[in-house]
Write a structure and sequence with these properties.
The protein is mostly beta strands. It contains one helix and twelve strands, in the order ββββββββββββα. The protein has a twelve-stranded antiparallel β-sheet, with helices on one face. The radius of gyration is 15 Å and the shape is globular.
């Protein structure tokens, strides 16, 4: 399964259109405007929430929770590192490795790649390609990618 993730430009809140490899709409994601912490909802095409991402405020390093049907399924934490960003993913037994600065990384289970992410450069707004191996949870993989994008966007904003 291939998902194409496009961030909408000129929006008051984070908005993403998620399409399949044929260009058909599959999901959409919207952030909340007036919130202390970053919050992002992922919806299917019928408008049903399939995942919810919430930042934990008052944390030394960025920490995000991913919920499905009201239950916590994953915790993503950015680790303190000086040379390259590093993330810990707790809950589903997945790990993430690669170049987060270049937005080119993999999601692994016991060292086996189950999904890969790469950023397409020279596009209007952020555009990611997420390839997910058959049989793996595409919504959770999508939530992980959007969470890492939120952390990276906040770090870039803080540096400016």
């Amino acid at each position: 399964m291939r998902l194409l993730i496009k961030q909408k430009v000129f929006s008051w809140r984070d908005k993403f259109a998620i399409k399949d490899e044929n260009g058909n709409d599959r999901y959409y994601a919207e952030g909340e405007v007036f919130s202390w912490a970053k919050k992002l909802h992922i919806y299917d095409l019928s408008g049903r929430e399939v995942a919810y991402i919430e930042q934990k405020i008052w944390s030394l390093m960025p920490k995000y929770y991913i919920f499905r049907n009201g239950s916590l399924v994953a915790l993503i934490r950015k680790e303190l590192s000086f040379l390259h960003p590093k993330y810990t993913l707790e809950g589903p037994g997945w790990t993430v490795e690669g170049s987060f600065w270049e937005h080119d990384y993999d999601i692994l289970v016991q060292g086996r790649k189950i999904a890969g992410v790469r950023k397409e450069w020279f596009t209007w707004g952020d555009f990611y390609v997420l390839d997910i191996a058959d049989g793996w949870d595409e919504v959770l993989a999508l939530a992980v990618v959007l969470t890492i994008d939120c952390v990276a966007a906040q770090a870039a904003a803080a540096a400016n």
